[in-house]
Amino acid sequence: MQGFFTFLQQNPYLLLFFVVGLAVWIGRANIKGYGLGMVAGAIVVGAALSVTASLYGVKLELNNFAKSLFYYLFMYGVGLRVGPSFINSLKGDGLKFTVLALVSSVLGLALVVLGAKLLSLPPGAAGGMLAGSQTMSAAIGSAEQAVTSGVVKLPEGMKPEDAAGMIALSYGITYIWGTVGIILICKYLPRWWGVDAKAAARQYEAEFGVRDLEGGGLTGFRQFGLRAYRLENQAQVGMSIAKFRLSNPEYRIVNVSRGGEQLGADPDLVLKKGDIVALGGATTHLTEKMGLIGPEVADAKTLGIPLDQAEILVTNKAVVGRTFESFRGEAMAGQLQVTKVERGGVPIPAGLKTELQWMDIVSVVGLKSAVNELAEMWGRVARTNTATDLLTLAAGMILGLLIGMISFPAFGASIGLGNAGGLLLSGVIVSSVVSRLRFFGNTPNAARNVLEDLGLVVFVAIVGVNAGAGLLAQLTGALALKIFIVGFIACTIPPFIVWAIGYHVFKINPAVLMGGVAGARSHSGPCREAAVEIQSSVPWIGFPVGYAVSGILLTVFGYFAMLLAQ
Length: 566
What we know:
By secondary structure, the chain is an alpha+beta fold. The protein is 57% helix and 11% strand. The chain contains 20 helices and twelve strands. The chain has helices spanning 2-10, 12-28, 37-55, 64-88, 94-118, 125-133, 139-148, 160-192, 197-208, 241-247, 283-286, 300-303, 368-378, 390-404, 418-436, 445-474, 477-505, 510-520, 524-534, 544-565, and strands at residues 224-230, 251-258, 261-264, 276-282, 296-297, 307-314, 336-343, 346-348, 361-367, 379-381, 407-410, 413-416. A five-stranded antiparallel beta sheet has the order 3-2-4-1-5. The protein has a five-stranded antiparallel beta sheet with strand order 8-7-9-6-10, covered by helices on one side. Strand 2 (251-258) and strand 3 form a beta hairpin. Helix 5 packs parallel to helix 20, helix 6 (125-133) packs across helix 17 and helix 8 (160-192) runs antiparallel to helix 18.
C-alpha cells in the first residue's frame, strides 16, 4: 500500500481525479433516496485517503493555486445561476421568501457562532459547522478565505492547515444530519402543525390552474393539437377566416388547401366547400365541437406547416405581472403551447393564473410565426446555443477579482468581499446585464453547470486531501460530539422559525411554504421530497427566490462565522 500512496504522491493530477472519480461514484450511492452526494463524498474520500496515506508515512498534498482557481470558477458560476432570481427577490411576493431566506441564514449563522463560543471549539469549527449544518458546501471556501486572508487570528502554534482541517472535519460531522434533517423537517412540518398540505396544494392548483410537474414524464397527452378537416358543414361555407375566429375564439385556422394549392391563413380568405382546413388549438377544444367543419382527414400537405420550439426570456416590463390567461385574446393564442416555465433556473408548475416575472424562461412549441410573435411581445428568444462567450467569462472573472480587492476597516481588521465574494457578485451583475442584451455573454446551462459542479467538487476534494493528514491529531470523541450537537441545533431550529413566520405572519399557502422552507435552506432535496409527500408540484413555486438568496448569504456567511467565532 505504501507504494500505491507514494505513486499518488508523485502524480498529483492522478491523485486529484482519482479522488474526484471516487467521490462521484460514492455520491451516486443512496439508501432509500438518501446519500452523501458527490461534494460531501469528495471531502470524505479525500480526507480518508490522506489519513490512510499518513499511516504509511506518506503525506498527500495538492496545489493550493488549483484549489483557489476551481473555487473561484464555482463562485462565478453560482452568480450566473442565481442572478435573475436574486434581482426578482427584491420586489413583489419575492420579498416574503427573501425575508424567510434571510431569517433562516442569519439564525443558522448565529447558532453556529454561539455554539462555537459556548463550547470553546477550536478555530475552523464554526465555518465547517455552518457549511455542514446548512448543507452549503461553498461556505467551506469563504471560511478558508477568512483564515488565509489573516482576518482570523490563530492561536500560537496553530497553522492555517490545521484550521482548514478543522473546517473539513466539522463539515463532515454535521453534514449528514444537515441533509437528512432538513428533508425530514420540511416533509413533515405541516403534519406537525396540524395542517393538511395536500388539501392546500389541491386548493392552490384549482385556484391558479397549475399542473403537476412530478409526473411530467413522456406521455401520450399533448396540450396543443393540429388537425385537418374537409369543409362540409354549410354553416361555415362562405365565412372568412377572421369571422370564423370571432365565432370560435378557441380555435385557429392556420392553413387552407384548395384543389391541392396551399392558400395559407389570410384573415380575409373566404372558406369554400371542399377546402381542407388545418385547425389548431388545445387538444380539449379540438374534441369539443366534432363536426364543426367536417370529417377529419389525414392531409400531409395541409398539415405540413413549419413548427418551432424556443425558450423565451421575459424581459419586456409591460408583460411582467400579467397572467398566462390574460393572453388568451392574442392572435397567437391557440397556435402554440407552453411546455415549461423556469424561474431562477428552477422549473416551476405554471397555470393560467401564474404571473410572469422578469427573467422567467418560458419554453413554447407551436407555429413558427406564433412563436416569433410571442417572443417579440415578451422579450427575446433564448435559443439553444452550445457556444460559450469566453471573452465575457474572462471579463466577468476580472471584474469579480477587482471587486474582491475592495476592503474597509472593521472588527480590528481589513474586511471585504474577497475574491470569492467579488466573483459571486460579478456573476450576478453579468447575468443581469446579459439578460438585457442579445449580442454577447452567452453561457449555456451545460457550461455553467461545469463551472459549478467541477469547480466545487475539485475544490472540496483538494480541501479533503490537504486536511486529512492533520485530522487524526485533532479529532477526539468529545470534540466530535460537541460539533455534532451544535450542527444538530443549527440545522433543526431555523426551519421551524421560518415556517411559523411564513404561515402565521405572511399567510403563505402551506404547500407553497414547504418549498419556501427548502429554498430558505438552499437545498432542493427537501422540496423534492415535499412534492412527493403531498403528490403535487406546488412546493416548487415557493422554492426559487429563497434558493437564490440563501445560496448567496450562506456562502458569504462562512467567512463571518470564522470572524465572529474567534
